[in-house]
Amino acid sequence: MKSILVGTGISDITGPIAEVGMMGYAQSSQVAMGLHTRLYARAYVFANPNGKRVVFVSAELAMLFSSVKQGVLKKLAALYGSMYDDRNVMISASHTHSGPGGYSHHVQYNLTTFGHVAQNYAAIVDGITEAIVKAHDGLAPATISMAVGNIEAVASVNRSLAAYVLNPEASASAAFIPPNLAVPASPAGAGPTVPLPIVNPEMTVLGIQRGGVPVGAISWFAVHNTSVGKKNTLVSSDHKGYAAFLFERKFGTIAPLLKYGEFVAAFPNGAEGDLSPNLNTSDPYEFHGPGVDDFDSSRIIGEREYTTAEHLFSGPNQTAVTGDVDFRHSFVLMPGLVVTSTKHTNGTNGVTLCAAAYGASFPAGTEDGRGLPIVKEGLALGSTMTFAELTALRFVATGLVASLIPGLNLVLTTAMTASSDPCQLPKPVLMPTGALGWTPEILPFQLLRVGPVAIAGIPGEMTLTAGRRLEARILSALAPLGVRRVILTGLANEYSGYITTPEEYDSQQYEGASTLYGRLTFDGYLQEFGKLADAIATGQAVPGGPPPPDIGVPQIELQTGVIEDRTLPGETFGQVLQQPPPTVNRNDLFQVSFRSGHPKNDLRRNNTYFRIERDNGTANWELVAWDSMPETWLYWTRPAGSISVAAVSTISVRWWVPLSAKPGTYRIRLVGSWKDGSNGGALVRYQGATNTFVVQ
Fold first, then answer.
1. Contact 340/351 with Cβ under 8 angstroms?
2. Alpha carbon distances (Å) from 51 to 276, 324, 326
3. What is the pLDDT of residues 622-650, one digit of tens each?
4. Residue 186 pLDDT greater than 60, yes or no
5. Number of C-beta neighbours around residue 279 at 10 A
6. Of 17, 279, 391, 416, which one's alpha carbon is 20 to 30 angstroms from that of 235?
7. Distance between CA atoms of 244 and 626, rounded to whole angstroms?
8. Pair 278, 227: CB distance under 8 Å
9. How many Å separate Cα 119 from the centre of its chain?
């Protein structure tokens, strides 16, 4: 069998943590005001000696847009020529909903962030590129193993059962479905069925060792990364980032200041479209996590993911990963795509995909992230919604969207009034984003093979049942080559909303309303991924397809950035405004505050805004904690008052002293830059340190 070389890399992709709209919940009121944990990109290069190579990246982002991949590939081309391109580089997002937004080049995904944010885009592209470069430079012989098992404690629920039960497969899940929801009868002659869980409990772990020393792991588990909810204003990697922190800490590394990158642990997502980590479903309006608050829920779910991953990584049931490294990739123009491999039809009894559009239930949000309270899920034209009601909702939506970006009123009114695309039925078209050019028309379909493992990059959010069907199709083609496991990686290479089955689409829950290209969207996926799998199986090439246009310039940039920083009379930058208590106990939570510059002045990538230090008794201060660790929180605020304090900033640091903290004398230092408006906006470094305090 062919050996496989592996390289691993990690880099910081944290953009601005203050005064930028957050990405994921589509809430314009959710604006970042601080930092809980930093965001990282983790990269892995797999290669046969003197043969093909592939790159897999897991980035702690809400979505991965073509804008980002285009930016990364430009930088890689400048470094390596044609070695890396769209075909063999897969970049996926963990789906945290607590990161800064504005990094897409499509209008739809920049609306609630008030346009594009160049600073955030640059941080993401630079960080992902850096992670890939590290993995490229570290390529060397390694031992790869695969282990598969079920999550050891409940970490997900199905948030869209009303749609799920419409699938024929749901008849095999009756024992798992609440009695108030009807379950379709088994097809005639189908025979006995094995109950299927209404979530996907499986985790797949690829473990990487070099010379018997663990150097990395990739742990796939499908669930929304939404333990931290829409009211949060702190940048956070959520439960998947917490699981990565625990796994890396297990092997002695904590990014970015402790043995950075010696062990790289990614927790990518999968077909998570209808799977939620918010296990408390007692509130019929909005589900909640199992913890006392969002960050506690994030900790609980993250611990469950990590525990399973670590047990699989170190357990006895390992499959050696050796063999061929291969890939196939095609760009596909979705509107107008003829879907021949289907028994279904769309709203006009045709078999072509539709122009992209969001439905009337889109503003309702989901069971674990509700949007407009006046809008309900399940709005289907002709059954639960009249055309008059749709017209009224369009009027409201037009006003809301136009309020976010001035000058869009006429465009929106014209487009919404003219759009009643029968291809999309039973979806009532609320926002014809395809006609407006606000969402992608060309999608990337990508399939990687690493020995017995196939990885499919899904440019959107695929539901559980759709994922099961797609996995089966790919495995049927690749099993003769020795492929034993098909992994779906969601939110990869581009973002195009949701992918529901035709049966789920008919109910027009939030997920169906967000399935852009109509009722046959998933069957189009099944067809195009089937072509890639067949091509790998037969050793044939596939057409590259029409590449998406590069629409990076011009972009709407509405944020002015930092003009200057000031202090109040008699103050200096770095001055401590709130000192720590003289003595704290382990498991205590306390806060200190500083007069600061704006965090946008210096993102401190691959570094930290603050340092918690312990006097080690030798006239040196030992670094104990920093801003990528989940036991700390950074809050940025402006003091209340008149316009005269508009340029004044305060940074507060909270520390939950861990039980493992050593007794001794500590201090907290803040490091940053302030902008001197009287000197052309020059940046001036500053720092400040608290009084010492004792941990006992």
1. yes
2. 40, 9, 9
3. 999 999 999 999 999 998 775 667 899 99
4. no
5. 19
6. 279
7. 16
8. yes
9. 19
Distance CA(591)–CA(125), nearest Å, equals 34
Tokens of 395: 């009027």
Provide DSSP, 465-489.
HHHHHHHHHHHHHHGGGT--EEEEE
User: Of 66, 92, 276, 298, which one is the catalytic site residue?
Assistant: 276
Nearest in space to 465 (alpha carbons), one of 430, 425, 505, 427: 505
In the block, residue with structure tokens 């969002």: 294
Using a 10 angstrom Cβ sphere, with 0-12 exposed, 13-18 middle and 19 or more buried, the burial of residue 560 is: exposed
- Which of these ranges, 345-349, 534-538, 663-667, has the smallest mean pLDDT? 345-349
Stretch (H or E) spanning 331: strand 325-333
- 289: nearest Cα among 156, 152, 96: 156
**SS3 track for 401-456:** HHHHCCCCHHHHHHHHHHCCCHHHCCCCEEECHHHHCCCCCEEEEEEEEECCEEEE
Interior angle at CA 150, CA 145 and CA 156, nearest 5: 125
Is 546:442 a contact under the CB 8 Å cutoff? yes
Q: How far apart are CA 481 and CA 483, in angstroms?
A: 6
- How far is 444 from 446, CA to CA, in rounded Å? 6
Q: Indicate if the alpha-carbon torsion angle 368, 369, 371, 373 is positive or negative.
A: positive
Q: Which residue bears the tokens 């918690």?
A: 612
Angstrom distance (rounded) from CA 623 to CA 687: 16
Q: Give the separation between CA 488 and CA 458, rounded to whole angstroms.
A: 7
Q: What distance in Å separates the CA atoms of residue 466 and residue 407, rounded to the nearest whole number?
A: 39
Q: Which residue has the tokens 């939404």?
A: 226
Cα distance between residue 314 and residue 224, in whole Å = 26
Largest interatomic CA distance in the chain = 84
CA gap 475, 481 in Å, rounded? 10
Measure CA of the first residue to CA of the last residue in the chain; give whole Å.
Answer: 57
pLDDT tens readout for residues 151-172: 999 999 999 999 999 999 998 8
Give the separation between CA 362 and CA 377, rounded to whole angstroms: 8
Q: Which residue has the higher pLDDT, 547 or 176?
A: 547
Q: How many other C-beta atoms can be found within 10 angstroms of the C-beta atom of residue 189?
A: 5
> Is residue 26 a contact partner of residue 241, using CB atoms and an 8 Å limit?
no
Count Cα atoms within 13 angstroms, Cβ side, for 334: 28
Which residue type, as a one-letter code, is found at position 583? T
356: confidence class by pLDDT, cuts 50, 70, 90: very high
pLDDT at 114: 85
Question: Is 237 a catalytic site residue?
Answer: no
Q: Who's near 349: CB < 8 A, 6+ residues apart?
A: none
Cα–Cα distance, 490 to 445 (Å, whole number): 12
Cα–chain center distance at 353: 26
Integer Cα distance of 426 and 428 in angstroms: 6
Residue spans of beta strands (DSSP E) within 29-93: 31-35, 40-47, 53-59, 89-93
Residue 626: strand pairing partners:
611
Instruction: Give the type of residue at 444.
Output: P
Q: Is residue 511 packed enough to be buried (19+ CB in 10 Å), middle (13-18) or exposed (0-12)?
A: buried
Using omega within 30 degrees of 0 as the cis cutoff, is the peptide bond preceding 554 cis? yes
